[in-house]
Amino acid sequence: MYGLIEALKAKVDSDGEQVAREMAYYPHVLGSPELREYTSAKLKEDRNIDVDPDGIVLTAGSGESIALLIQAITDPGDVVLTEQFVYGGTLNQLRKFKADVVGAPIDDKGLIPEALEETIKKLTAEGRKPKWLYTIPEHQNPTGSTLPDSRRREILDIAHRYGMPIMEDECYIDLRFDGEAQSAFRELDDSGIVMHVASFSKLIAPGLRMGYFVASQEVTERALSFKHGSGPNQFAAYAITGYLKENLHKHRDTFNPILKEKKEAMQRGLEDHFSGTGATWSNPQGGCYTWLELPEGKDISAIRDEVFDAGVGYLAGINFAPNGDGQNMARLCFAFETPEKNYDGIALLAQLFRKHGVM
Amino acid sequence: MYGLIEALKAKVDSDGEQVAREMAYYPHVLGSPELREYTSAKLKEDRNIDVDPDGIVLTAGSGESIALLIQAITDPGDVVLTEQFVYGGTLNQLRKFKADVVGAPIDDKGLIPEALEETIKKLTAEGRKPKWLYTIPEHQNPTGSTLPDSRRREILDIAHRYGMPIMEDECYIDLRFDGEAQSAFRELDDSGIVMHVASFSKLIAPGLRMGYFVASQEVTERALSFKHGSGPNQFAAYAITGYLKENLHKHRDTFNPILKEKKEAMQRGLEDHFSGTGATWSNPQGGCYTWLELPEGKDISAIRDEVFDAGVGYLAGINFAPNGDGQNMARLCFAFETPEKNYDGIALLAQLFRKHGVM
Fold it and tell me: A84, A113, A250, B83: which has the fewest C-beta neighbours closer than 10 Å?
């Protein structure tokens, strides 16, 4: 927070008149021009994506981006594909706007191109041709998977053949602590079929509510028509722009290794306390979540509240399941607690699962 | 801005852990608890309105409040009443959500209760019974009028008799420099029929995007169901709460006299350059706008762009007119420029109006 405050102060010190003038008006509908300029440069440097500052729409978190884009491209009843398990916030938004959400099969690397195409064919044969695909290709929420480049290319090929736009949500892209980032769908394809969503909130602090999207001009205009007002908070935009210009690399270099330690402690806990039980779990290269899967038939959604009251929180798989499955699965968050608490929490979780007879 | 930054810093200095914890999560859907607590106390002190902090919904500016409430209580085709001339932002929102907007007659004090009832009767006879009423009772945008208490009571009586909820927009309430504030509709009536909207953006800086509404539980729940995500920017909320707790009175005592000088300079300009031309103008007790009316038949909307290019900006009356009238009227903003520029601008405006043959 002090970093953000210092950035704000430096901005007022150097551009006081501009700040006073800008703050006296509503923010630009696309959001702060300076932050869009910074975002354009960041997208080029980090993701090799070419987009003008005026092609970027800043929003109150990536959540607003997703909500606007859903409204822009979805009519009630439209079939929307997602990963088999998908971020609950997006699932709720899709349902709110009356999409018919179908989860496509995944494995530990995310969407499976062949299975995706099968799903499209099957739905189309039923008269439910999918309208578009939502995916979190990197550090997926809830499973933690990263989709390999080769699969992205295959999925793009499918998308073109079936006329199915892709909304990629890169909200966790800056939280990588292992391995290599894969190419964004938007880098691999700028034909207009790909909508790219990302966030500064996840990188710095969710309370900042600052995300953005990049889409074709037509989709962008439609999305903007659903906005309730002007662009997002100009005050937060000053702080974020100033802070990231000075500190992006340092910030990632400081916090991602801490995130890695937290994840590894959770992994050690899982190895020590879940090995040999039939459970499997993901080993993410970034993000906030590990996905735990117990053998089929073990219902850990039903006992979630009792386990929570006994001291370990998780979100049951069914919360992320458009198809209603996932009773034997759970999302474990490693980002908030210390490594020690992560390890001890997993030990306690194993004990509680045994007590409740699911393990 | 330095005041806001100091408030932020003081907050982190004193409650660093709480700040870190809160910023790590999405803001509460109702917005910052501390700012809602402050708002509850401010509503009591300034407006004699009793409402719990949990009855207040903070939003990204009052614009989001209005958009959410419109969606909560309006179906496409519903007739919504407003003042004969009404803030363009609300008019656009109403039209976006497909309301059938009808302006009710006004005079220099705002809505005229008898004429309002006549309008309701006439519309009802046509099968277009009004669903609800939107009004800016204090420092109306665009006309600058303040609705007297007695009229508010009569309008409330009408509202009850015709089952017509009232949305009162007090976004300019803190910008009073003359006269006495009148009672809010919400003070006079807490039966649930009144929705109360206000803003911190107008008071401090529009770039802050922080407004709020108070409504019945039923309407609030419906309005929240239309939100795109979580509550408004927590970062801005810290700054606003800290700043206003220390500085509200000083802020108003400092800036409202400046606003008054600006308005008076514009009034002098109008007296010196528009007297005897048949033009009339309002003399607001607060807010940002004076309303100028030329004799019927003089079209100042058609020449607006040429006058703007020659150096004087105004918004033509038709921009505020649900009924499509107002060609001979304009909204003049006195809040942004210095008193000198306001005076000189009016002198130039008279000259340009003469040149274009409308005066």
Answer: A250
- Which H or E element spans position A225? none
- The shortest C-alpha distance from A118 to chain B (Å) reads 33
| Architecture, CATH, for domain A2-247 | 3-Layer(aba) Sandwich (3.40)
Domain spanning A255-355: which CATH class is it, in words? alpha beta
| Cβ of residue B249 closer than 8 Å to a chain A Cβ | no
pLDDT digits (tens, 9 = 90+) for A141-165: 999 999 999 999 999 999 999 999 9
Q: β-strands B280-281, B211-214: how paired? A: unpaired
Of A20, A25, A239, the CB nearest to B235: A239
Task: Give the ipTM of the model, two decimals please.
Answer: 0.76
Sheet holding B79-83, edge to edge: B56-59, B211-214, B194-199, B166-169, B130-135, B79-83, B100-104
* Residue A171 amino acid letter: C
Helix (H) or strand (E) holding A154: helix A149-162
> What tens digit of pLDDT does each residue of A185-214 get?
999 999 999 999 999 988 888 888 899 999
The band of A230, judged by pLDDT with boundaries at 50, 70 and 90, is confident
User: To 10 degrees, the CA torsion angle through A320, A321, A327, A330?
Assistant: -30
Q: Where in chain B is the domain with CATH 3.90.1150.10?
A: 252-355
Query: Within 10 Å of residue B161's Cβ, how many Cβ atoms?
Result: 10
| Global pTM value | 0.86
CATH of domain B252-355: 3.90.1150.10
Q: Does A209 touch chain B (CB under 8 A)?
A: yes
